[in-house]
Protein backbone atom coordinates (compact mmCIF):
# COMPACT_ATOMS: atom_id res chain seq x y z
CA UNK A 1 0.00 0.00 0.00
CA UNK A 2 2.91 2.37 0.76
CA UNK A 3 4.19 2.00 -2.80
CA UNK A 4 0.75 2.60 -4.33
CA UNK A 5 0.25 5.83 -2.37
CA UNK A 6 3.73 7.02 -3.25
CA UNK A 7 3.15 6.34 -6.94
CA UNK A 8 -0.09 8.30 -6.90
CA UNK A 9 1.40 11.27 -5.02
CA UNK A 10 4.63 11.69 -7.00
CA UNK A 11 4.90 12.67 -10.66
CA UNK A 12 7.10 10.04 -12.26
CA UNK A 13 8.97 12.42 -14.56
CA UNK A 14 12.39 13.28 -13.13
CA UNK A 15 12.30 16.98 -12.31
CA UNK A 16 16.00 17.55 -12.89
CA UNK A 17 17.41 20.91 -13.92
CA UNK A 18 19.36 21.99 -17.01
CA UNK A 19 20.32 25.65 -17.08
CA UNK A 20 22.56 27.88 -19.19
CA UNK A 21 25.03 29.74 -16.98
CA UNK A 22 26.89 31.58 -19.75
CA UNK A 23 25.83 33.67 -21.65
CA UNK A 24 23.40 34.51 -18.85
CA UNK A 25 20.71 35.85 -21.20
CA UNK A 26 20.83 33.03 -23.78
CA UNK A 27 17.97 30.96 -22.32
CA UNK A 28 16.28 32.44 -19.25
CA UNK A 29 14.52 29.27 -18.11
CA UNK A 30 15.24 25.72 -17.06
CA UNK A 31 15.41 23.38 -20.04
CA UNK A 32 13.20 20.28 -20.02
CA UNK A 33 14.89 17.04 -21.03
CA UNK A 34 14.60 13.27 -20.92
CA UNK A 35 17.28 10.76 -20.02
CA UNK A 36 18.52 7.91 -22.20
CA UNK A 37 18.01 4.27 -21.30
CA UNK A 38 21.75 3.64 -21.49
CA UNK A 39 24.94 5.09 -20.04
CA UNK A 40 25.71 5.63 -16.35
CA UNK A 41 23.42 8.28 -14.88
CA UNK A 42 24.93 10.13 -11.87
CA UNK A 43 21.71 10.52 -9.89
CA UNK A 44 21.98 13.03 -7.08
CA UNK A 45 25.04 14.64 -8.66
CA UNK A 46 25.51 17.79 -10.74
CA UNK A 47 27.52 18.28 -13.92
CA UNK A 48 28.80 21.68 -15.00
CA UNK A 49 30.70 22.14 -18.23
CA UNK A 50 31.44 23.91 -21.49
CA UNK A 51 29.50 23.08 -24.64
CA UNK A 52 30.65 22.30 -28.21
CA UNK A 53 28.72 21.65 -31.40
CA UNK A 54 29.52 18.26 -32.91
CA UNK A 55 31.44 17.90 -36.15
CA UNK A 56 29.92 16.12 -38.00
CA UNK A 57 26.64 17.55 -36.70
CA UNK A 58 24.73 14.24 -36.62
CA UNK A 59 27.48 12.44 -34.70
CA UNK A 60 27.09 9.27 -36.76
CA UNK A 61 30.84 8.97 -37.46
CA UNK A 62 33.97 9.89 -35.52
CA UNK A 63 33.50 13.27 -33.83
CA UNK A 64 36.24 15.89 -33.63
CA UNK A 65 37.85 15.47 -30.17
CA UNK A 66 37.26 17.99 -27.41
CA UNK A 67 39.76 20.70 -26.52
CA UNK A 68 38.46 21.00 -22.96
CA UNK A 69 34.69 21.25 -23.36
CA UNK A 70 32.54 18.73 -21.47
CA UNK A 71 29.14 18.61 -23.23
CA UNK A 72 28.44 18.20 -26.93
CA UNK A 73 25.38 19.12 -29.01
CA UNK A 74 24.36 16.48 -31.58
CA UNK A 75 21.56 16.59 -34.14
CA UNK A 76 19.00 13.78 -34.22
CA UNK A 77 18.76 11.36 -37.14
CA UNK A 78 20.68 9.11 -39.59
CA UNK A 79 21.86 6.65 -36.89
CA UNK A 80 20.93 5.35 -33.46
CA UNK A 81 21.24 7.44 -30.31
CA UNK A 82 23.68 4.89 -28.92
CA UNK A 83 26.00 5.40 -31.91
CA UNK A 84 25.96 9.18 -31.41
CA UNK A 85 26.69 8.99 -27.69
CA UNK A 86 29.36 6.34 -28.17
CA UNK A 87 31.15 8.65 -30.65
CA UNK A 88 30.82 11.56 -28.20
CA UNK A 89 32.41 9.50 -25.44
CA UNK A 90 35.19 8.41 -27.79
CA UNK A 91 35.88 12.09 -28.54
CA UNK A 92 36.39 12.79 -24.83
CA UNK A 93 33.06 14.42 -23.91
CA UNK A 94 31.33 13.74 -20.59
CA UNK A 95 27.75 14.12 -21.79
CA UNK A 96 25.82 14.25 -25.07
CA UNK A 97 22.86 16.58 -25.70
CA UNK A 98 20.67 15.48 -28.60
CA UNK A 99 18.06 17.78 -30.13
CA UNK A 100 14.58 16.65 -31.14
CA UNK A 101 12.83 17.36 -34.45
CA UNK A 102 9.99 19.22 -32.71
CA UNK A 103 8.91 20.99 -29.54
CA UNK A 104 6.54 18.35 -28.19
CA UNK A 105 6.54 18.12 -24.37
CA UNK A 106 9.29 16.02 -22.86
CA UNK A 107 7.19 13.53 -20.90
CA UNK A 108 9.20 10.30 -20.90
CA UNK A 109 12.59 8.83 -21.63
CA UNK A 110 11.40 6.27 -24.14
CA UNK A 111 12.63 8.29 -27.13
CA UNK A 112 16.26 7.45 -26.40
CA UNK A 113 16.09 3.68 -26.19
CA UNK A 114 18.99 1.25 -26.13
CA UNK A 115 19.66 -0.38 -29.51
CA UNK A 116 21.36 -3.37 -27.91
CA UNK A 117 24.83 -1.79 -27.73
CA UNK A 118 24.15 0.62 -24.88
CA UNK A 119 26.35 -1.44 -22.57
CA UNK A 120 29.33 0.02 -24.46
CA UNK A 121 28.43 3.55 -23.31
CA UNK A 122 29.29 4.97 -19.89
CA UNK A 123 28.56 8.72 -20.23
CA UNK A 124 25.02 10.07 -19.72
CA UNK A 125 23.00 11.60 -22.55
CA UNK A 126 19.84 13.68 -22.68
CA UNK A 127 17.20 14.69 -25.19
CA UNK A 128 15.89 18.29 -25.45
CA UNK A 129 13.29 20.21 -27.46
CA UNK A 130 14.07 21.62 -30.89
CA UNK A 131 13.68 25.27 -29.80
CA UNK A 132 16.28 24.96 -27.06
CA UNK A 133 18.64 22.92 -29.21
CA UNK A 134 18.42 25.50 -32.01
CA UNK A 135 19.31 28.39 -29.68
CA UNK A 136 22.26 26.49 -28.22
CA UNK A 137 23.61 25.26 -31.57
CA UNK A 138 23.32 28.71 -33.21
CA UNK A 139 25.37 30.21 -30.39
CA UNK A 140 27.87 27.33 -30.55
CA UNK A 141 28.45 28.07 -34.24
CA UNK A 142 30.15 31.30 -33.17
CA UNK A 143 33.24 29.37 -32.08
CA UNK A 144 35.24 26.32 -33.09
CA UNK A 145 36.00 23.28 -30.93
CA UNK A 146 39.66 24.29 -30.76
CA UNK A 147 38.89 27.92 -29.72
CA UNK A 148 39.41 29.33 -26.25
CA UNK A 149 37.02 28.00 -23.64
CA UNK A 150 36.44 31.49 -22.25
CA UNK A 151 33.78 32.25 -24.87
CA UNK A 152 32.01 28.91 -24.94
CA UNK A 153 28.54 28.18 -23.57
CA UNK A 154 28.56 26.93 -19.98
CA UNK A 155 25.71 24.80 -18.62
CA UNK A 156 24.73 23.24 -15.30
CA UNK A 157 22.87 19.95 -15.07
CA UNK A 158 21.60 18.35 -11.88
CA UNK A 159 20.15 14.84 -11.84
CA UNK A 160 17.61 15.20 -9.06
CA UNK A 161 15.95 12.36 -7.19
CA UNK A 162 13.02 12.23 -4.79
CA UNK A 163 14.52 12.13 -1.31
CA UNK A 164 12.62 10.60 1.60
CA UNK A 165 13.24 9.03 5.00
CA UNK A 166 11.74 5.74 3.79
CA UNK A 167 12.85 4.49 0.38
CA UNK A 168 10.47 2.64 -1.93
CA UNK A 169 12.06 0.26 -4.44
CA UNK A 170 9.99 -1.63 -7.02
CA UNK A 171 11.58 -4.34 -9.13
CA UNK A 172 9.78 -5.04 -12.41
CA UNK A 173 10.76 -8.58 -13.40
CA UNK A 174 10.08 -11.13 -16.12
CA UNK A 175 10.42 -14.80 -15.11
CA UNK A 176 11.32 -15.73 -18.70
CA UNK A 177 13.96 -13.03 -19.21
CA UNK A 178 17.59 -13.66 -18.23
CA UNK A 179 18.22 -9.93 -17.88
CA UNK A 180 15.86 -9.81 -14.89
CA UNK A 181 17.89 -12.48 -13.13
CA UNK A 182 21.16 -10.69 -13.94
CA UNK A 183 19.94 -7.47 -12.31
CA UNK A 184 18.80 -9.31 -9.19
CA UNK A 185 22.09 -11.21 -8.95
CA UNK A 186 24.11 -7.97 -9.25
CA UNK A 187 22.00 -6.16 -6.68
CA UNK A 188 22.09 -8.98 -4.08
CA UNK A 189 25.28 -7.80 -2.27
CA UNK A 190 23.90 -4.25 -2.08
CA UNK A 191 20.65 -5.56 -0.62
CA UNK A 192 22.69 -7.13 2.17
CA UNK A 193 24.67 -3.91 2.59
CA UNK A 194 21.48 -1.87 3.06
CA UNK A 195 19.60 -4.55 4.99
CA UNK A 196 19.23 -2.46 8.15
CA UNK A 197 18.06 0.68 6.34
CA UNK A 198 14.46 1.87 6.00
CA UNK A 199 13.78 0.49 2.52
CA UNK A 200 10.55 -1.10 1.33
CA UNK A 201 10.97 -3.52 -1.60
CA UNK A 202 8.12 -4.64 -3.85
CA UNK A 203 8.10 -7.14 -6.72
CA UNK A 204 6.00 -6.60 -9.85
CA UNK A 205 6.20 -9.41 -12.40
CA UNK A 206 5.26 -9.19 -16.05
CA UNK A 207 1.77 -10.61 -16.58
CA UNK A 208 -1.55 -9.56 -18.08
CA UNK A 209 -5.21 -9.59 -17.16
CA UNK A 210 -7.93 -10.54 -19.63
CA UNK A 211 -11.62 -10.39 -18.81
CA UNK A 212 -15.00 -10.39 -20.53
CA UNK A 213 -14.79 -6.68 -21.31
CA UNK A 214 -11.89 -7.31 -23.69
CA UNK A 215 -13.84 -9.26 -26.32
CA UNK A 216 -11.27 -8.94 -29.09
CA UNK A 217 -8.67 -10.96 -27.17
CA UNK A 218 -9.30 -14.66 -26.79
CA UNK A 219 -6.70 -15.86 -24.33
CA UNK A 220 -6.47 -19.60 -23.62
CA UNK A 221 -7.59 -20.68 -20.16
CA UNK A 222 -4.45 -22.82 -19.88
CA UNK A 223 -2.33 -19.65 -19.90
CA UNK A 224 -4.24 -18.06 -17.02
CA UNK A 225 -5.64 -18.58 -13.54
CA UNK A 226 -8.78 -17.14 -11.90
CA UNK A 227 -10.91 -16.88 -15.04
CA UNK A 228 -8.26 -15.17 -17.19
CA UNK A 229 -7.56 -12.58 -14.51
CA UNK A 230 -3.82 -13.38 -14.30
CA UNK A 231 -2.18 -14.53 -17.52
CA UNK A 232 1.14 -14.97 -19.28
CA UNK A 233 1.44 -15.77 -22.98
CA UNK A 234 2.23 -19.38 -23.87
CA UNK A 235 5.99 -19.70 -23.29
CA UNK A 236 6.73 -22.41 -25.86
CA UNK A 237 4.04 -22.22 -28.54
CA UNK A 238 3.02 -25.73 -29.47
CA UNK A 239 4.97 -27.27 -26.58
CA UNK A 240 3.48 -28.68 -23.40
CA UNK A 241 4.28 -25.67 -21.21
CA UNK A 242 1.57 -23.10 -20.53
CA UNK A 243 1.33 -19.54 -19.31
CA UNK A 244 -0.28 -20.90 -16.15
CA UNK A 245 3.02 -22.58 -15.25
CA UNK A 246 4.67 -19.17 -15.38
CA UNK A 247 1.93 -17.42 -13.37
CA UNK A 248 2.18 -20.03 -10.62
CA UNK A 249 5.95 -19.57 -10.47
CA UNK A 250 5.44 -15.81 -10.20
CA UNK A 251 3.24 -16.44 -7.17
CA UNK A 252 5.79 -18.82 -5.61
CA UNK A 253 8.61 -16.31 -6.04
CA UNK A 254 6.43 -13.58 -4.55
CA UNK A 255 5.72 -15.73 -1.48
CA UNK A 256 9.40 -16.61 -1.06
CA UNK A 257 10.36 -12.93 -1.17
CA UNK A 258 7.60 -12.07 1.29
CA UNK A 259 8.70 -14.73 3.79
CA UNK A 260 12.46 -15.02 3.20
CA UNK A 261 13.76 -12.01 1.23
CA UNK A 262 17.47 -12.80 1.73
CA UNK A 263 17.02 -16.39 0.58
CA UNK A 264 14.96 -15.17 -2.37
CA UNK A 265 18.10 -13.73 -3.98
CA UNK A 266 19.86 -17.11 -3.76
CA UNK A 267 16.71 -18.84 -4.98
CA UNK A 268 16.57 -16.58 -8.04
CA UNK A 269 20.21 -17.28 -8.86
CA UNK A 270 19.64 -21.05 -8.72
CA UNK A 271 16.34 -20.85 -10.57
CA UNK A 272 17.95 -18.96 -13.45
CA UNK A 273 20.46 -21.73 -14.09
CA UNK A 274 18.49 -24.86 -13.20
CA UNK A 275 14.89 -24.20 -14.25
CA UNK A 276 14.80 -23.67 -18.00
CA UNK A 277 11.54 -25.50 -18.83
CA UNK A 278 8.30 -23.83 -17.69
CA UNK A 279 6.44 -27.14 -17.55
CA UNK A 280 8.92 -28.25 -14.86
CA UNK A 281 8.95 -25.01 -12.87
CA UNK A 282 6.97 -26.54 -10.00
CA UNK A 283 9.27 -29.55 -9.50
CA UNK A 284 12.42 -27.49 -10.04
CA UNK A 285 11.23 -24.90 -7.55
CA UNK A 286 10.71 -27.54 -4.86
CA UNK A 287 14.26 -28.79 -5.35
CA UNK A 288 15.77 -25.31 -5.04
CA UNK A 289 13.77 -24.58 -1.90
CA UNK A 290 15.22 -27.76 -0.37
CA UNK A 291 18.74 -26.64 -1.28
CA UNK A 292 18.23 -23.13 0.11
CA UNK A 293 16.52 -24.31 3.30
CA UNK A 294 13.24 -22.59 2.46
CA UNK A 295 10.27 -24.31 4.19
CA UNK A 296 8.15 -25.61 1.34
CA UNK A 297 5.03 -26.01 3.46
CA UNK A 298 5.14 -22.37 4.56
CA UNK A 299 5.50 -21.19 0.97
CA UNK A 300 2.64 -23.45 -0.13
CA UNK A 301 0.44 -22.03 2.64
CA UNK A 302 1.25 -18.52 1.44
CA UNK A 303 0.42 -19.64 -2.10
CA UNK A 304 -2.95 -21.15 -1.10
CA UNK A 305 -4.03 -18.41 1.32
CA UNK A 306 -3.48 -15.67 -1.24
CA UNK A 307 -6.60 -16.80 -3.13
CA UNK A 308 -9.74 -15.25 -1.65
CA UNK A 309 -13.39 -15.34 -2.64
CA UNK A 310 -14.46 -12.15 -4.39
CA UNK A 311 -17.65 -11.95 -2.34
CA UNK A 312 -16.57 -13.03 1.13
CA UNK A 313 -12.82 -12.17 1.03
CA UNK A 314 -12.18 -15.50 2.74
CA UNK A 315 -9.51 -17.96 1.54
CA UNK A 316 -10.84 -20.31 -1.11
CA UNK A 317 -9.71 -23.10 -3.40
CA UNK A 318 -12.47 -22.36 -5.89
CA UNK A 319 -10.45 -20.31 -8.37
CA UNK A 320 -13.43 -19.61 -10.66
CA UNK A 321 -14.70 -16.91 -8.30
CA UNK A 322 -11.42 -15.91 -6.68
CA UNK A 323 -8.89 -13.15 -6.83
CA UNK A 324 -5.29 -13.45 -5.71
CA UNK A 325 -4.39 -10.66 -3.32
CA UNK A 326 -0.63 -10.84 -4.08
CA UNK A 327 -1.02 -10.81 -7.85
CA UNK A 328 -3.82 -8.24 -7.69
CA UNK A 329 -1.52 -5.84 -5.85
CA UNK A 330 1.14 -6.31 -8.52
CA UNK A 331 -1.32 -5.60 -11.33
CA UNK A 332 -2.46 -2.42 -9.58
CA UNK A 333 1.09 -1.11 -9.14
CA UNK A 334 1.84 -2.09 -12.75
CA UNK A 335 -1.08 0.05 -13.97
CA UNK A 336 -0.51 3.03 -11.65
CA UNK A 337 3.22 3.21 -12.39
CA UNK A 338 2.74 2.81 -16.13
CA UNK A 339 5.42 0.14 -16.28
CA UNK A 340 5.94 -0.92 -19.91
CA UNK A 341 9.48 -2.31 -19.87
CA UNK A 342 10.73 -5.39 -18.04
CA UNK A 343 13.07 -5.56 -16.28
CA UNK A 344 12.74 -2.15 -14.71
CA UNK A 345 13.35 -0.49 -11.35
CA UNK A 346 11.50 2.39 -9.68
CA UNK A 347 13.08 4.23 -6.76
CA UNK A 348 10.64 6.49 -4.91
CA UNK A 349 8.32 6.16 -7.92
CA UNK A 350 10.95 7.38 -10.41
CA UNK A 351 12.00 4.99 -13.14
CA UNK A 352 15.68 4.13 -13.02
CA UNK A 353 17.40 5.12 -16.25
CA UNK A 354 20.80 4.47 -17.67
CA UNK A 355 22.99 1.40 -17.69
CA UNK A 356 21.22 -1.38 -15.83
CA UNK A 357 23.51 -2.61 -13.08
CA UNK A 358 23.29 -3.50 -9.41
CA UNK A 359 25.77 -0.77 -8.52
CA UNK A 360 23.79 1.81 -10.48
CA UNK A 361 20.59 0.92 -8.64
CA UNK A 362 22.48 1.06 -5.34
CA UNK A 363 23.73 4.55 -6.24
CA UNK A 364 20.25 5.87 -6.98
CA UNK A 365 18.87 4.39 -3.75
CA UNK A 366 21.70 5.98 -1.76
CA UNK A 367 21.07 9.40 -3.28
CA UNK A 368 17.35 9.09 -2.49
CA UNK A 369 17.91 9.10 1.29
CA UNK A 370 17.30 12.39 3.06
CA UNK A 371 20.13 11.36 5.38
CA UNK A 372 22.32 8.81 3.57
CA UNK A 373 23.74 6.06 5.81
CA UNK A 374 27.50 5.43 6.05
CA UNK A 375 27.11 2.45 3.69
CA UNK A 376 26.39 4.97 0.94
CA UNK A 377 29.49 7.14 1.42
CA UNK A 378 31.04 6.01 -1.89
CA UNK A 379 27.95 7.06 -3.87
CA UNK A 380 27.24 10.49 -2.39
CA UNK A 381 28.95 13.62 -3.70
CA UNK A 382 30.62 15.43 -0.79
CA UNK A 383 29.34 12.86 1.69
CA UNK A 384 29.38 13.90 5.34
CA UNK A 385 28.73 11.30 8.07
CA UNK A 386 25.48 11.88 9.97
CA UNK A 387 26.08 14.16 12.96
CA UNK A 388 24.00 14.89 16.02
CA UNK A 389 22.22 18.23 16.15
CA UNK A 390 23.64 20.81 18.55
CA UNK A 391 20.56 20.58 20.78
CA UNK A 392 21.02 16.82 21.09
CA UNK A 393 24.72 17.22 21.86
CA UNK A 394 23.91 19.79 24.56
CA UNK A 395 21.30 17.47 26.02
CA UNK A 396 23.81 14.58 26.16
CA UNK A 397 26.40 16.83 27.84
CA UNK A 398 23.90 17.97 30.49
CA UNK A 399 22.86 14.40 31.24
CA UNK A 400 26.50 13.30 31.46
CA UNK A 401 27.33 16.15 33.84
CA UNK A 402 24.42 15.23 36.11
CA UNK A 403 25.50 11.59 36.14
CA UNK A 404 29.07 12.52 37.10
CA UNK A 405 27.94 14.93 39.85
CA UNK A 406 25.47 12.39 41.21
CA UNK A 407 28.22 9.75 41.30
CA UNK A 408 30.58 12.07 43.23
CA UNK A 409 27.83 13.05 45.68
CA UNK A 410 26.90 9.40 46.17
CA UNK A 411 30.51 8.48 46.90
CA UNK A 412 30.85 11.26 49.50
CA UNK A 413 27.63 10.23 51.24
CA UNK A 414 28.72 6.61 51.25
CA UNK A 415 32.08 7.55 52.78
CA UNK A 416 30.36 9.62 55.48
CA UNK A 417 27.98 6.77 56.35
CA UNK A 418 30.88 4.37 56.67
CA UNK A 419 32.65 6.76 59.06
CA UNK A 420 29.52 7.21 61.15
CA UNK A 421 28.96 3.47 61.37
CA UNK A 422 32.54 3.14 62.52
CA UNK A 423 31.94 5.60 65.34
CA UNK A 424 28.58 4.21 66.42
CA UNK A 425 29.21 0.49 66.13
CA UNK A 426 32.97 -0.14 66.10
CA UNK A 427 34.03 2.11 69.03
CA UNK A 428 31.74 0.45 71.67
CA UNK A 429 33.02 -2.93 70.58
CA UNK A 430 36.63 -1.79 71.04
CA UNK A 431 35.82 -0.36 74.51
CA UNK A 432 34.16 -3.61 75.51
CA UNK A 433 37.19 -5.63 74.41
CA UNK A 434 39.56 -3.30 76.36
CA UNK A 435 37.42 -3.66 79.51
CA UNK A 436 37.46 -7.43 79.25
CA UNK A 437 41.22 -7.37 78.74
CA UNK A 438 41.74 -5.25 81.92
CA UNK A 439 39.45 -7.51 83.97
CA UNK A 440 41.38 -10.55 82.73
CA UNK A 441 44.72 -9.19 83.97
CA UNK A 442 43.24 -7.99 87.26
CA UNK A 443 41.94 -11.52 87.85
CA UNK A 444 45.38 -13.02 87.22
CA UNK A 445 46.95 -10.64 89.75
CA UNK A 446 44.45 -11.67 92.47
CA UNK A 447 45.17 -15.33 91.79
CA UNK A 448 48.90 -14.72 92.29
CA UNK A 449 48.29 -12.92 95.62
CA UNK A 450 46.10 -15.77 96.90
CA UNK A 451 48.72 -18.35 96.09
CA UNK A 452 51.35 -16.42 98.09
TrEMBL record:
Annotated Vacuolar sorting receptor thioredoxin-like domain residues: 183-366
Pfam families, A to Z: PA, VSR_TRX
One term under GO cellular component: endomembrane system
Main location as per UniProt: membrane
PA domain: residues covered: 56-133
Membrane topology, from the record: Single-pass membrane protein; Single-pass type I membrane protein
Compartment(s) where it occurs, according to its Swiss-Prot or TrEMBL record: Endomembrane system; Membrane
Transmembrane segments: 392-414
Signal peptide extent: 1-16
Any one GO molecular-function label of the UniProt entry: zinc ion binding
Keyword Cell division belongs to the record: no
Keyword field: Glycoprotein, Membrane, Metal-binding, Repeat, Signal, Transmembrane, Transmembrane helix, Zinc, Zinc-finger
Record-linked PANTHER family: PROTEASE-ASSOCIATED DOMAIN-CONTAINING PROTEIN (PTHR22702), PROTEASE-ASSOCIATED DOMAIN-CONTAINING PROTEIN 1 (PTHR22702:SF1)
UniProt protein name: PA domain-containing protein
